[in-house]
Write a structure and sequence with these properties.
- The chain is mainly α.
- 67% of the residues lie in helices and 0% in strands.
- It contains eleven helices and no strands.
- Helix 5 runs antiparallel to helix 6 and helix 9 packs across helix 11.
- The longest helix has 35 residues.
- It starts with a helix and ends with a helix.
Length: 329
Amino acid sequence: MQTEARVGVVVEGGGLNTTPSVVVEPRRQRHIDTVSQLLAGGVAGAVSKTCTAPLARLTILFQIQGMHADASSLEKASIWREASRIVREEGVRAFWKGNLVTIAHRLPYSSISFYAFERYKNMLQDSFGVENPGENIGADLCIRLVGGGLAGITAASLTYPLDLVRTRLAAQTNVAYYRGIWHALSTISKEEGVFGLYKGLGATLLGVGPNLAISFSVYDTTRSYWHFHRPEDSTVLVSLACGSLSGIASSTVAYPLDLVRRRMQLEGAGGRARVYKTGVFGTFRHIIRTEGWRRLYRGILPEYYKVVPSVGIVFMTYEKLKQVLSTIP
């Protein structure tokens, strides 16, 4: 969602304009065509995930500490110690374990979320009669929050089985129960039923709405504010800085739900006994009771290290691809 789903979009021509002398670009010119939006969003997500895969895997391994008895060996692990263990026991390539399914998930997820945000935002602007975005800061922020949340829910629901498979592949250490994407999908369907592919969906939907809403709105608002006050600054620099800031904000707020989602996704994996049997809120209570409040943020450091380059790359790549694709007739 992980966010993992820490992605956003660029608002062309928008801005926090507070004076009547600023000319607002007509809405029909703010968007490249649909295919280009989908392509740019998907490629941006895939590039970002591939670049930050080692930190993403470390985050998952830390998140599932304490879930089973054999995870106790990781209790005192630091980022460096766990990274060294991966290299020693699994090899350097293991940092990218599950990256293929990550890309297979991220391409449609990013494409859908970028495209859906633009569509939801336009629909909300039409519904509320907002003809000149940027004139009303409060209305713009509300539309971005709601549009971002709806976009995240739409994308997560449509691509969820791949997200679950990615978690299970990345969580495997020395013993590989699942041999690949299709083997994992078929094995989970056979052993846990079709609904097993949707374990943790409730936590995902609870988290992805606020996660993407914060990510989209922070990015959109800070970028518009920046361009309004410093229009001569590099587009790449602005996208990288604002994207990183939005990622840190959304990760901090949504991380406990992301941890719960990961643990629920691993319920019953490889024939193991279930640990959490009372849903999202029951899982929260179980973790707090057995591990303490602080453990809801277990693994937050590699997540922070990941989120700045991850979100920065995704926004920067998306921005540059849009510029390139917009020049193609």
